[in-house]
């Protein structure tokens, strides 16, 4: 049986207290909300903070404010269940509800938070194992070793970004507000993720994700498709988020397609957008955009399914995501 190692548990009452605690303790401390990712990682000794700072009692992080016409702010500690059941999110941002419903299981969605899913640790078959298993292969580049077993000749860690909400947030143009003892900053979701399995976030350890700012729903539509082995519980081995704006005639004015689950960062396929923009939103141009996703997708052998088949599925799942949007124009 794997057990949690010993650690100190802090429960600040304000954002200022939380970020001050993190600033004082330095990299030996880590924020936690629902803990559905951090605590299993601690049991496997993948992450070993000496102090865990809970942010679940910070009221500003547990609120949803605004509406579609003006934009919505979602506190980072809002649980996935509360996100799914919120009437404004259901009405104005159904793509977020649909993506969040695919995450894990109902029990874990009651604990897990939107912020936790957006900050999810990258995953890999050689990393997501217990300590003794990892020790048996002399560990890996992401934790305690010096070789990436996915690509032994590479100096880069190829653990993959496996969040369902990340591709959606990048596609719709969400922004994240972060706080620390140095003040606050807001960063676009598209610029928040690094293509590196170890340094996968453009976030300092002392920074706290406060809220997620959704853009106004000014005529755009978005969808999300997820590939996984089982119909529930599994992480995505491919996620496709599609976002489009159309004109009065039904032509595409703007578009974004973002792939998740195949690289250390979400992959925006600009060639797919180019295939759609300025053209009718029809099957011919949907297929051209899906082909662009297939060309850009380069999954490695570090998660479930054969990597070449996952690459082929990029075409199929991009097609599904775009056809869903075209059917509701």
Describe the model:
With 329 residues, this protein is an alpha+beta fold. Among the domains are: 59-119 and 160-214, Uridine Diphospho-n-acetylenolpyruvylglucosamine Reductase, domain 3 (2-Layer Sandwich); 220-326, Enolase-like, domain 1 (2-Layer Sandwich), CATH 3.30.390. Helix content is 31%, strand content 20%. The protein has twelve helices and twelve strands. The protein has helices spanning 15-25, 38-43, 80-85, 87-92, 94-101, 106-111, 114-118, 131-136, 165-172, 270-276, 283-296, 307-326; strands at residues 8-10, 29-32, 51-54, 64-67, 71-75, 175-180, 183-188, 208-214, 220-227, 238-246, 252-260, 267-268. The strands form three sheets. A five-stranded antiparallel beta sheet has the order 4-5-8-6-7. A four-stranded antiparallel beta sheet has the order 9-10-11-12, with helices on both faces. The chain has a three-stranded parallel beta sheet with strand order 1-3-2, with helices on one face. Helix 10 packs antiparallel against helix 11 (283-296). The longest helix has 20 residues, at 307-326. The protein starts with 7 loop residues before the first strand and ends with a helix. The model has no long low-confidence stretch (mean pLDDT 96).
């Amino acid at each position: 049986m794997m057990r949690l190692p010993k650690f100190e548990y802090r429960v600040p009452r304000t954002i200022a207290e939380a970020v001050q605690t993190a600033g004082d303790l330095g990299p030996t401390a880590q924020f936690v909300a629902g803990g559905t990712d951090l605590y299993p990682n601690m049991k496997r000794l993948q992450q070993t903070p000496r102090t865990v700072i809970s942010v679940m009692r910070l009221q500003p992080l547990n609120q949803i404010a605004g509406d579609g016409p003006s934009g919505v702010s979602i506190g980072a500690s809002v649980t996935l269940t509360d996100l799914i059941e919120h009437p404004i999110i259901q009405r104005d941002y159904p793509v977020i509800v649909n993506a969040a419903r695919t995450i894990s299981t109902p029990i874990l969605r009651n604990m897990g938070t939107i912020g936790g899913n957006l900050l999810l640790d990258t995953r890999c078959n050689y990393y997501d194992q217990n300590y003794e298993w990892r020790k048996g292969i002399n560990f890996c580049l992401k934790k305690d070793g010096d070789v990436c077993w996915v690509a032994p000749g590479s100096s880069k860690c190829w653990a993959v970004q496996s969040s369902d909400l990340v591709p959606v947030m990048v596609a719709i143009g969400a922004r994240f507000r972060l706080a620390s003892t140095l003040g606050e900053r807001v960063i676009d979701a598209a610029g928040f993720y690094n293509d590196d399995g170890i340094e996968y976030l453009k976030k300092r350890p002392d920074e706290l994700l406060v809220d997620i700012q959704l853009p106004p729903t000014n005529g755009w539509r978005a969808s999300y498709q997820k590939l996984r082995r089982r119909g529930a519980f599994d992480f995505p081995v491919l996620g496709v988020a599609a976002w489009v704006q159309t004109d009065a005639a039904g032509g595409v004015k703007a578009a974004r397609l973002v792939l998740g689950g195949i690289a250390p960062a979400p992959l925006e396929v600009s060639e797919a957008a180019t295939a759609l923009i300025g053209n009718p939103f029809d099957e011919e141009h949907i297929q051209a955009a899906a082909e662009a996703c297939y060309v850009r997708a380069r999954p490695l052998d570090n998660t479930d399914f054969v990597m070449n088949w996952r690459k082929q599925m990029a075409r199929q799942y991009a097609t599904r995501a775009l056809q869903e949007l075209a059917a509701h124009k």
